[in-house]
Design a protein that fits this description.
By secondary structure, this protein is of the alpha+beta class. The protein is built from four helices and six strands. A hairpin with a 5-residue loop joins β1 and β2.
Length: about 120
């Protein structure tokens, strides 16, 4: 695994931590201002929507597994993985994120969640 892949996976895992999700300053480091998300519901969320949701969210833990990274272009990585709210992943969601190297730091620019087939 390349160093960039490992770094992006670690940054994505940070975004899953309740302690990070509640810290606006940390989120501003990780999430690009032009970020948007398409949620598992099919709704599109802007940067402002996501910031408000994350800092006000009440989540205990998010489980994750099966991380895969692919370089799409220089300074652009696609990350795919699965999350669940329980260890058995009975409510699993497939996740895809695009991370871009901007200056000296990686930032997430896009995210999509899709409910996994049961």
């Amino acid at each position: 695994m390349s160093e960039n892949f490992a770094q992006v996976i670690e940054l994505e895992k940070q975004l899953l931590l309740p302690a990070v999700r509640g810290q606006k300053a940390k989120l501003l480091e990780l999430i690009a201002p032009d970020f948007y998300e398409i949620g598992a519901s099919g709704k599109r969320y802007s940067f402002d929507d996501i910031m408000e949701m994350l800092v006000n969210e009440d989540v205990d833990v998010i489980f994750s597994r099966d991380f895969k990274a692919k370089e799409l272009a220089e300074k652009l990585i696609l990350l795919q993985y699965q999350t669940g709210r329980s260890e058995d992943f009975s409510d699993a969601v497939w996740r895809s994120s695009l991370w871009q190297l901007r200056g000296a730091k990686w930032q997430i620019i896009f995210h999509q969640g899709t409910k996994a087939a049961q």
